[in-house]
Amino acid sequence: MDFRELQEFCETGTITPGRMRAVDKNSMALGVSGPQLMEAAGLAVTAAVRESAPSRVLVLCGRGNNGGDGLVVARHLQECVVDVIYPAYGSATPGFLAQLDSLRACSAALHAVRLLAEVEALAPLFEQADVIVDAMLGTGVEGTPREPLATMVGLMNASPARVVTTDVPTPGTRSDLIVTFHRPKEPGGRVAEIGIPLAAEICTGPGDLMMLRPKGATAHKGVGGEVLVVGGGPYQGAPYLAALAALRAGADIVRVASPVALPAPDLIHVPLAGNRIGTEHLETLVPLAERADVVLCGNGLGTESHAVVTALAPHARRLVLDADALRLPLPAGNETIYTPHAAEFARMTGGGALPADLAGRARAVRAAVPEGAAVLLKGAVDIVSDGARVRFNRSGCPAMTVGGTGDVLAGLTAGLFCRLSPFDAACLAAYASGLAGEAAAAGRDAGMTATEMLEKIPQVLYG
Asked: Which amino acids does the record list as binding AMP (predicted)?
């Protein structure tokens, strides 16, 4: 991939804390370590602090990576009188602890506090400081800070010092300047680039796995979602591959509505009379579609059942369309994911061949996404778009050209769609499918079967 040609697909504007954590993790997987990111962030804040030429600087830290950023600032400001206050207890990230070890060899004065009285005894430091650095709590933290941070917040707000914030303000604090990293987490502030590779944002990666929240201890049957797969007739195995993939992706209950039953005791078969799925089956299919969290249509369906899909689609809260369902008139549910390869994309859009270059293909996909939907264009590099954002997936291997892998991807997408948005489900499905294929192929470029991918999916997603 030539990333010079893909710069236009980098997102702009504010970024959610969850997405920023994913980008950070993707960046680390691309070889930019956590300590490197922390050092770059701390240097950006250091430059902002030096703008007012302070003599005394007070750095307030929590015990997370935001606090680690603050410790980097303290280490780089040894030309000043620097005091650092941080909690002496509680869990700490490895990044914070590593930076604390480095700072012990520097001239900064370290004040580890446990009690409210210990913070109050340090009140003169707040009054004497020219600049206070707020590095107490980072992205994703909500609510009122607990002690001893709460008292530190009150003293900082009452201080005449200039307040410089690392990334996001600690809840309840004032700030004269927010130095935010990579992209703003909220409106305002100064954005500092910290060396995150472009691919960490525009490509899928291990950070995408962080979107999946673990089930709670009180989880019950069905909390992972129910999927209805409508397919089969001319081609029998496809809907069952898709259904098993949905189970492996985390769906709790999967039904296969098909004219043919195959031995799969983990699935619920809904028998449909005849050799093809037709409109006469809608009386059975509509109630099942209305109760399902996600409906998947198209796998093994053939070309004679499109009227059924079109009629069934409005009854689906969430709909995944694959294979033979990808044709005009294009069906749509309340929320829809389309999973075409290049020929199916041309068929479902009524357009011609896609451009040969990756950027051109991505523009074409983005322009073709219906409102409220996402498109996952399968290829050597998968392209996912919701009409605004574009993400590229590079996982996978040549052995995945074997038949059935597309059905596995569609089922995996449906299973994830029970819990994620259309765009997020499509991105994660593309990434996880590619990793499962790589694991199943075990370095071979041929000889893998789609069924071998199924057992790899849970390890990729949840292992």
From this structure: 406
